[in-house]
């Protein structure tokens, strides 16, 4: 198999324009003859389904939630990037492109990333037209804030609920098409397999999660917009239902899986409080605009904090270590996520953690509250305001910017973050790896496309904050409507896909046999028990840091756990009913294979880059040590029957417009 990324020729800034000007088109009359399946209705899926239906294609959209509005995109808090330079602070399309390439530690494709930066401005215009209530400044113009890995303000936001507002915009566009009949919506349906006929994706097998009915759906093209696989770690910021099964099923049918070990650890999550937890909560990275991260300088103070004998407000300023500001003065608290996460882990490992588990640092808003309060007092003409008045005014400013996030933190922890610092610790959040796609977002299976977090294409080894929403909407609104037409222009004479074909029969039979095995297994151990054990292996040995010995052990342990799972898993209930335990069993079975491939990928990549930190490869001061001479490529894995026997295909990354440098945020 030879990987062809289909990158257009010409200068970087002209590639997308040239592509659009020369791509094959499908006439409006022929679009009505073509069927497209979209699996997933988050930002990428909903925007793609709405856009393709508006163009005239017949679209079927599938989601396992009860409504497209329940997609996990709704949980994104902080914002969406776009290179509009509204702040006049030096931003540009090239700077967004460069920040993304650098932030990803030079492990992403130049052409895809530049296209993403190029269309970013259009996304904001589209969403404003839809009525998305972005924050505005005092003059009524759209406001911006900064995120990690940048020195400009380019992030558009709607308080701490940007994902929700953007998804409602996409959902409104999708709902319009559903009402017109151009999109047929299948809620509470889960894709069980991709159907490939004569080498092309021709449909899916789906299960109605309410009735248990197995259904066949044919189409001329299939789009997977099913998000990431972070829940392989069990504890993550993802919704409990988020999973990697659709991508994994596609992988087993011939779609290469790229860079699976590139997972992102988010630095600002509410720390785990006990073994009973099944979910972690994200606190938006936007909080790092105004919050300062610190631990005590003295281990004895940290110990007293852990014992509850000291309060954080008891630690005077001179005894606090603002370690990100100390180590990375140029970026301070706004270093990229991988850098901030490893720095927090290092401080906690050294004994400076501040909660009872020792796995937490402080995110403190005291100085921001007093700074904003003084500015507001000046604006109001209040002379010689008291500290209490300054605090009162400052808290109102912070509430306007982050109020729902502060409220959420207090509800979960019973700590008022206006009066005491938040406690945060890194947690699994996003997956940069995913299904390999070319410039057209098509996988190695013709007719099968992957959008958003489900593909690998834009973020390299570490995603910059506020870029996930940007990629999802760019793929759905502005890229796939062009690129899928290039493929479908060759399908207008294909006729309707016959769901009685032997390939559909075979795929459905395999899905039914798997379900029958789970329900008839008579094991003794719950699905969650296996999932929790897998997550512990992954976090301990393929988490924030990895080493060769641990990865080899993890592969053996996952293989043994998978064997035990198939022998001893207990799935109650029936197949012809709503049965969430059955749904989970299928997803965990896939995680038990995907986790092994992730460890294999991490083991083969003998370097540190972005979120992939191999302990054997680091600089003297503990930073990631890349090996560009040997590993400047995309690792795309081909399934051959067992994850540990996957075949590696390399897409060499060519950098013609940026110079490969050691990342520095100092």
Automatic annotation (TrEMBL):
Its main location: membrane. InterPro entries: FAD-dep_OxRdtase_2_FAD-bd, FAD/NAD-bd_sf, Fum_R/Succ_DH_flav-like_C_sf, Fum_Rdtase/Succ_DH_flav-like_C, SdhA/FrdA/AprA, Succ_DH/Fum_Rdt_flav_su, Succ_DH/fumarate_Rdtase_cat_sf. The gene is sdhA. GO terms for biological process: anaerobic respiration. Keywords: Cell membrane, Electron transport, FAD, Flavoprotein, Membrane, Oxidoreductase, Transport. SUPFAM superfamilies: FAD/NAD(P)-binding domain, Succinate dehydrogenase/fumarate reductase flavoprotein C-terminal domain, Succinate dehydrogenase/fumarate reductase flavoprotein, catalytic domain. It is found in: Cell membrane. It catalyses: a quinone + succinate = fumarate + a quinol. PANTHER family: SUCCINATE DEHYDROGENASE 2 FLAVOPROTEIN SUBUNIT (PTHR11632), SUCCINATE DEHYDROGENASE FLAVOPROTEIN SUBUNIT (PTHR11632:SF53). The active site is at 337 (proton acceptor). Its EC number is 1.3.5.1. The lineage of its organism: Bacteria, Pseudomonadati, Bacteroidota, Flavobacteriia, Flavobacteriales. It comes from Thermaurantimonas aggregans. The keyword Membrane applies. This is succinate dehydrogenase. Residues 35-469 form the FAD-dependent oxidoreductase 2 FAD-binding domain. One of its GO terms (cellular component) is plasma membrane. It comes from the Bacteria. GO terms for molecular function: electron transfer activity; flavin adenine dinucleotide binding; succinate dehydrogenase (quinone) activity. It is a peripheral membrane protein. Residues 531-665 form the Fumarate reductase/succinate dehydrogenase flavoprotein-like C-terminal domain. Its cofactor is FAD. Belongs to the FAD-dependent oxidoreductase 2 family. FRD/SDH subfamily.
